[in-house]
Each structure stands twice: as structure tokens, then as C-alpha cells.
From TrEMBL:
<keyword id="KW-0670">Pyruvate</keyword>
<keyword id="KW-0456">Lyase</keyword>
<dbReference type="GO" id="GO:0004068">
    <property type="term" value="F:aspartate 1-decarboxylase activity"/>
</dbReference>
<dbReference type="GO" id="GO:0005829">
    <property type="term" value="C:cytosol"/>
</dbReference>
<dbReference type="GO" id="GO:0006523">
    <property type="term" value="P:alanine biosynthetic process"/>
</dbReference>
<comment type="subunit">
    <text>Heterooctamer of four alpha and four beta subunits.</text>
</comment>
<comment type="pathway">
    <text>Cofactor biosynthesis; (R)-pantothenate biosynthesis; beta-alanine from L-aspartate: step 1/1.</text>
</comment>
<dbReference type="InterPro" id="IPR009010">
    <property type="entry name" value="Asp_de-COase-like_dom_sf"/>
</dbReference>
<feature type="active site" description="Schiff-base intermediate with substrate; via pyruvic acid">
    <location>
        <position position="25"/>
    </location>
</feature>
<keyword id="KW-0865">Zymogen</keyword>
<keyword id="KW-0210">Decarboxylase</keyword>
<comment type="similarity">
    <text>Belongs to the PanD family.</text>
</comment>
<feature type="binding site">
    <location>
        <position position="57"/>
    </location>
    <ligand>
        <name>substrate</name>
    </ligand>
</feature>
<dbReference type="InterPro" id="IPR003190">
    <property type="entry name" value="Asp_decarbox"/>
</dbReference>
<keyword id="KW-0566">Pantothenate biosynthesis</keyword>
<keyword id="KW-0068">Autocatalytic cleavage</keyword>
<dbReference type="Pfam" id="PF02261">
    <property type="entry name" value="Asp_decarbox"/>
</dbReference>
């Protein structure tokens, strides 16, 4: 059996641009892509922390070291520069591989610089 698993995540990236007149996609700094194990043309889900919008698109590689996170085309209507987003990719895996897979998660700062790439997600509880 195959399972769809959380493969990679870029957490709390700041949208630097929203380009409505581009064909489509999300442009992401190549350094961020390398750290998160996301590649050009890979399908990603974008979750806007500011307004709750969720969308899917594909990745275009942006200039290395630029910090660019630009939503292009129709997706530009769902974000504003300055919004915080979570960018997630998933992968299909055999169950045996999926049970032991460790996602690549990078946490970003307010300038789209990587704070850590060794984050382990824990559950949240309220008391």
C-alpha cells in the first residue's frame, strides 16, 4: 500500500511579492529549496497564516540568497507581500518507507533566512 506523506516544509516564510500577471506558480529562493528538499516543478501546498487561504501550485527556482517567496498568477490574489506562509510538499511512499521517513522542515525568520533545518514536529496540547 502507498501512503501520501508530508515530505518537506518551509515554515513561516514571508511573501516578498505577489505577481498577478505571471503565468502561475511560486518562486522560491534556491537556498531555501535545497534546505527543504523541494525541487523545481514540484507540487506544493501553500497555507497562508494571515488569512487561512490554502492553494496548490508548482515551484520555480528563484535567485540563490535572495530570500524571494513570490506567488504568481491567480495565487497572487490569495496573498499579500508580508504575509506568513507555510509551504508543504508531499510524497507517495510504500508503507514501510513512510513509517520511518523524516520530513525536511526548515523554519524561517522575518527575512526569509533559515533559522533551523533540524526541527522535529511535536504535537500540541492545551491545558
Amino acid at each position: 500500500m502507498f501512503r501520501e506523506i508530508h515530505k518537506s516544509k518551509i515554515h513561516r516564510a514571508v511573501v516578498t511579492e505577489a505577481n498577478l500577471n505571471y503565468v502561475g506558480s511560486i518562486t522560491i529562493d534556491e537556498d531555501i529549496l535545497d534546505a527543504s528538499n523541494i525541487i523545481e516543478n514540484e507540487k506544493v501546498q501553500i497555507v497562508n497564516i494571515n488569512n487561512g487561504a490554502r492553494l496548490e501550485t508548482y515551484v520555480i527556482v528563484g535567485p540563490r540568497g535572495s530570500g524571494v517567496v513570490c506567488l504568481n498568477g491567480a495565487a497572487a490574489r490569495l496573498v499579500q507581500p508580508g504575509d506568513l506562509v507555510i509551504i508543504i510538499s508531499y510524497a507517495m511512499m510504500e508503507e514501510s518507507e513512510a513509517r520511518n521517513y523524516k520530513p525536511n522542515v526548515v523554519i524561517m525568520d522575518e527575512n526569509n533566512r533559515i533559522v533551523t533545518d533540524s526541527y522535529k514536529e511535536l504535537h500540541s496540547t492545551t491545558v
